[in-house]
Design goal:
Elements lengths: L4 E6 L4 E2 L5 E7 L3 E6 L4 E8 L12 E24 L2 E24 L7 E9 L6 E12 L1
Length: 146
């Protein structure tokens, strides 16, 4: 089924759950959000996703997939990705991205009827214990609806 709506959120919209743990934070229009943290720490990072609301008799709007684009530098690991609708985790994925570009697609079949609270992709990052601080770049996230 073809996508009816495709929305992308630029990485500059990334929200740090614990910004006080960052040793470096920059929101750059050419890159996205760049974060460095000390080795041995971890944290959750959230990117809001544009969330359409089903109106009147349109009952067929389905969230098909969510994509994440990021760059994981040395000494860093993305180990979990959650897709959230309000307080509900609608999809959880354990991953193991280390020192690489990330272009991850998470498929869903999530009906948007009567959903409130908005969508977000939440990314858990470990800054490995060896070496100095590590860096991750959040480039953006996309949501595909049919």
């Amino acid at each position: 089924m073809a996508s009816r709506f495709v929305f992308w959120t630029h990485g500059v919209a990334t929200i740090l759950e614990r910004p006080d743990w960052a040793t470096f934070l920059s929101h750059q229009t050419n890159v996205g959000t760049v974060v460095e943290q000390q080795a041995g720490t971890h944290g959750w990072f959230h990117i809001p996703l544009t969330t359409p609301v089903v109106m009147e008799n349109d009952t067929s709007l389905i969230l098909q997939r969510v994509e994440l684009r990021a760059v994981v530098k040395a000494q860093v690991q993305i180990d979990q990705i959650d897709i959230r609708c309000g307080e509900e985790v609608v999809r959880h994925r354990d991953v193991n991205f280390r020192a690489m570009p990330v272009d991850e697609t998470i498929t869903l079949d999530f009906p948007m009827r009567d959903k409130r609270g908005g969508l977000a992709i939440s990314i858990h990052v470990n800054f490995q214990s060896q070496g100095d601080s590590g860096q991750v770049e959040f480039r953006g996230a996309g949501a595909y609806y049919s």
